[in-house]
Amino acid sequence: MKKIVRWHGVIAFIVIVGVLAVFWLCFVDNIVKRVIERNGTAAVGAKVEIADLDVSIVPAGISMVDLRVADPDRPMTNIVEIGRLSVSIDSGNLLRRKLVIDDMVADGVMFGTARKTSGAIAENHKKAAAEKQNRNKGKKQGPSFELPSFTLPSPEEILKKEELESVIRAKKLKEDIQTEQKRWKERLATLPDKKKFEQYKARLEKIKSKARGLSGMLGAAEDASSVYRDIKADIETIKKARADFNRTINDFKARIAKLSKLPEQDVKRLTDKYANPSGAVSNISRVVFGEKINRWIETFRTWYHRLSPYLAKVPGPVEPGRKVKLKPARGEGVDVRFREANPMPDFIVRRAEANVILDLGTVEGQAKNITLEQNIIGSPATVEFKGSRLKKAGSVYMKVVANYIVPQSPVYTMDLSVRKYSVSDMDLSANGKFPLHLASAVADLAANGRMDNSGLNLSGLLKLNNVRMSLDADRTVSPIMEGIGSALAGIDSLDVTATVVGPPDNVRIDVASNLDSIFRQAVSKALAKQAAQLEEKLRAAVFERADMEIGGVKSSLDSMGGIDKDLLNRSRLGESLLR
Fold first, then answer.
1. Is residue 321's pLDDT more than 90?
2. What is the pLDDT of residue 517?
3. Sorting pLDDT into bands at 50, 70 and 90, what band is 318?
4. Distance (Å, rounded) from C-alpha 72 to C-alpha 343?
5. In this structure, what is the dihedral angle of CA atoms 31, 37, 39, 45, given to the nearest 10 degrees?
6. Which pLDDT tens digit goes with each residue over 336-374?
7. Distance CA 282, CA 275 (A)
8. Alpha-carbon torsion (166, 168, 174, 180), positive or negative
9. C-alpha dihedral over 277, 279, 281, 284, to 10 degrees?
10. Dihedral of CA 489/495/499/504: which sign?
11. Which value, in Å, is the radius of gyration of the alpha carbons in the chain?
12. Residue ranges per domain, the chain?
């Protein structure tokens, strides 16, 4: 009779199951832990570490303790640290080679925590640095926010780099006078002179000596009449020349009169340019807040480039011009997705919850539909955080929606609201030349943004009430700093608006606040005395230089007086012959 149970088979089965169980209990957790750490490190470019990991079969899931992800740009800092992370996996879809996470719970999430050891990976760190350098190559640098100098320059410094209109016009007028003087000297040589009139006189005397007898007297009268006509014609030529000369002289005198007014105009123009503070502090908000906003944009830009390779994997239409054969499709380098009764992405986190520990308190967060294949589920990914009655704030709310259901037209939106946030001991300005310190205030922040194919469009409004602000700088350096410090002491509220518009790699940042008008008034008042002193010194320096040039012009014009005298003498000499 045959045995119903083959004991050696049962024993073999028990041994195999036992070996698998021992392997599972002893090795699976560590294997999965190392796989996650290795792949995570490769993806991030810095160390991903897990203190402890537990894999469960029923229900399928993973539980991690103390997950730390290092920042590749700051190896001694963690991007994120999670106290405990529990993941519940859909085992049915797992058999279909689809990782569907039904629930994910993260407890004790913290950002920017310090590390005891470096999280840098040498090879990946060099690669990331090279990629960052390639991204920045040829790209415009972020805007530079420089604080204007409130120190007024000396007249000598101003006149070294500024041209005086009075001096330019004086030099031009002097050249014109010298040119005209040369022209008149040449013209004088062509006009009747003393020699010619002496010739007329000699001719008249000769005619008189021949006037004997009646016929001689008649002939002499006719000859004398001809000479007198010539003399009158020459006198008329000289008078016309003298009239032209006087018109030229009068024109030069009019230009000199206008020239005499130009030095004062130069003084006014230069004083307005160098002592008028309106341009220097027209947008002090950009100086105060601009660098900090620019750093936030740089952080956004860094993460944008880090995530871009993953977002590029979003399924989309076949590239234009690429031919795809329908039969057979395999072996052609095309991912083929066959029709499914219940379509499901290859990877999706249906629901995730987290409590995040921030400086202002602990906020609760929830995320849904985290997948690259939104075109399958037809819903965007959403991340939402909220908290109320926090340690340092009345309430916090943030919602981010990533919509790439239509891969060609992705849209990302963000809404942020912080109410009654207690601010204390904060360096408001990142500009070292203008250390603006906020001792305390109550802040309300509202911001919203959108990014699509056209670029980034972000706007925000910050309201600060119960403000106590100070300028941590040596106020004795200049009256300007003293005036600004006094003005800041009187500020009770502050409203700041900011907009960021443009492509992620080349955004335009605009910042405005009521600091602009406050600073303008303070600086104007403080600069008034210095401006008056500068104007007085500038007037002396400008007039000294201009008077020297104008004096040369007048001397050149005076030297032309001899021409008029010469023309007058010639005219009188001719007229004396007519008597």
1. no
2. 81
3. very low
4. 37
5. -160
6. 666 666 778 888 899 999 999 988 888 999 999 999 888
7. 14
8. negative
9. 180
10. positive
11. 46
12. 44-131, 156-314+410-579, 364-409
Of 158, 23, 98, nearest to 537 by C-alpha is 158
What DSSP element (H or E) covers 134?
helix 122-136
Specify burial of residue 435 (Cβ count, 10 A radius: 0-12, 13-18, 19+): middle
pTM of the complete model: 0.62
Predicted pLDDT of residue 333: 58
Rounded to 10 deg, the angle between the 284-311 and 122-136 helix axes is 120
Omega of the bond leading into 328 within 30 degrees of 0 (cis) = yes
Can you tell me whether residue 338 is helix, strand or coil?
coil
Give per-residue pLDDT as tens, 146-179.
Answer: 555 567 788 888 888 888 888 898 889 889 888 8
DSSP 217-238: HHHHHHHHHHHHHHHHHHHHHH
Tell me which residue has tokens 């402890």.
52
Measured distance CA(72)–CA(43) in Å, rounded? 11
How confident is the model over 243-255, as a mean pLDDT?
A: 88
Instruction: Return the SS3 of 119.
Output: coil
Could you give the CA distance from residue 558 to residue 556 in angstroms, rounded to a whole number? Answer: 5
- Average pLDDT value for residue range 114-131: 70
